[in-house]
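Friendly challenge for the regulars: who can give me the structure tokens for this chain first? No prize, just bragging rights.
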Amino acid sequence: MFLDNQRISFRQVYRLYLFSLVGISTLVIPGKIAEKNGVYGVISILLGGALAFLYLFYLKRVAKNMETDLITYLDRREGGGNLLKRGALFYLAGSAVMTAGYVAFVFSKLVQKSLTAEENYLLILALIVLVGGYAVVGGIESRARVYEVMFWFVLIPMFLLLLISLKGINFIYFDFHRAPDYGKMLQDGYLCFLPFQTLFFALLLPKYVKKDYNRLFFSIGLALFCGVGILIAFFLILVGTFGAEALSKMEFPAVTFLNNVQFTGGFFKRLDAIMMGIWFFTLFALMNMNIHYGGILLKESVKKGGGKRYLLGILAVVYLLAAGLSYVEPMQEFFFNFFLFFGVPMYVLLPGIFLAMGRKRA
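First reply, four minutes later:
Bragging rights claimed.
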């Protein structure tokens, strides 16, 4: 029988973060960075990864100075009445809910396109959001156990797919002779950093783990390193399979790739279905992470009881956002611009601001 003390191990932190980082990045990023620079998009991924590691190092310094999780730190230093603090936490909660809404949109579209083309999108979305809410109610420890059990069932098929795919690469598509657009390369590097904004939630994790910041951030850093490596591998295989121009026009290139790659052998013929399940699982993990921490931040920002009431409200907003993203196309551009120009900069600035606010009050 398992304990239920809402504590998780550093190994579980690593697996939780790896699942959360891999799914959305491998589905969305390759098509967005391939058009201008082709295979040189790898440099953009490396730039995005470097920014993510710098951000993680910055978060580690902030966490060590706080000596506890973000919420406890702010409560001890300021109490619950500071308007600036509560406004910033509310903003972060809103950003997390928006991220969860976008992930739910991608998740539901993926299910509809790959499994149930005739099924109603809103019904699929409702089921995904409800199951996600149920998982969040179970607590972080329950989810961490599931991720721990599923870890090798996810990674082994993924590596098998990457190995099998190597024989289908056409090296002509790599086109190393084309002149890279360095300005676009830098822009794409920033774009590649977007999926890693959930690293911010590392500031909320000390509540759930042993007080060892070196091991905590090493676990997250290892997940980030593996996530960047998997993204590079997928990007190169997709470019080598479709070419940069065709890749840039695909909504979900990895899914198109699964529908085109030829598998032989009884088990390998179903590897495409297994891989689709893996993407479902990783998207589910990312959605749950944002719903979970969005609820914590929202509750702290309004300083009122009723955690489940907040969860129901968040689930309703996630559903409405994901529905809007499907039926109101300009919303997708709005979400992209919001995270590009407001979401990520605030995730970067606020940890330092919170630390300074606490020191001022100390």
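The two ends are 43 Å apart (CA to CA). The mean pLDDT is 84. Your move, everyone else.
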